[in-house]
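RETRY 2/3 - previous attempt timed out on the joint model. Re-submitting the same 338-residue input unchanged.
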Amino acid sequence: MKEILSIALLGAALALPAWPAAAADGGKRSMAEKGSFHRIHKQKEKLDCEDCHEEQPLPDNTLKLRLHEPLAKDSPGPVSSESCHECHGKKQKKAVNWYAPKQPRQQP
Amino acid sequence: MTRLARLIDMKKCMGCRACMSACAVENHFTPDAPWNVMIEYEVGTYPQVRKVYNPMACMHCEKPACKAACDYIGVKAIRKTELGNVVIDYDKCNGCGYCASTCPYGVPQLNKEVKPLSPGKGPLGSEALPLAARHPTHRKKVRAVEKCTFCAHKLDKAVADGKVDRIGKDHEYTPTCDLVCPVQARMVGDIDDPQSDISRRIKETNAVQLLKKFGTSPQVFYVLEEGASS
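RETRY 2/3 succeeded.
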């Protein structure tokens, strides 16, 4: 029992210094199709490509800096910020709230 | 306390792109990673059709979504300065692109290659300086995200010189895009001061923030052309 505890403590001591380093560089995060971003949205959250990607080019009056940027190879289409806002613009358990929507004032 | 904001009057803007060119030279951004662009589109129905010119760069949000994402994953490469401009630390950035995907305006740009602004014609502006002598926002790095900084090199100088009150007035302390507009469609100033030129102009013109529903409280205000997107 003592041996197991010693090994566990040693393992924790070795692992702890490595943890902040991994957090500091964000790990291997990437927007690539096989990267972390798509893994979260596609595999974990089970979103389909068309849940975020539009089939058509975004309209000319879309307020996006690189509206006419060439898409990545094999991309199913451009992504509108609106689709991000649908999940990340409200408080819910699944998606982190990146945006700060005005909450409706609670009636007394 | 000074809190900087920008006003862009789309009714005055004629789409000349002097602001973009000046920014490119001042901050040597490259076409693959622009800091300042012109969105243009038509509004109305024929024959009453007009062109809308909407210059866009970083909105320097009060609650920047890019920073929220970067902090969340533990990289913490994005910060808001005491004057309110949002800047990226290229040394901390890991190039993941999460900030670019989170920004409602798609502002952050991943620099895949550090190229000279004018290939074959020699260095321009701060490109001529050795890396160590440049402002940190001009020490470009491959696989780092960059964007408009409100000309942080000038703002930092204003802070160092104790001349924060001269931002928006003096050439050396004012973002370059705001200096070069031939029709005075742009200005920058302190919106914490209700008597400042920008505070008065925002009020007089009913200028608005774009994509306000995202709740990031952008610090760039626009006088909208009729029919323009907001």
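Residues 2-24 of chain A form the longest helix (23 residues). Closing ticket.
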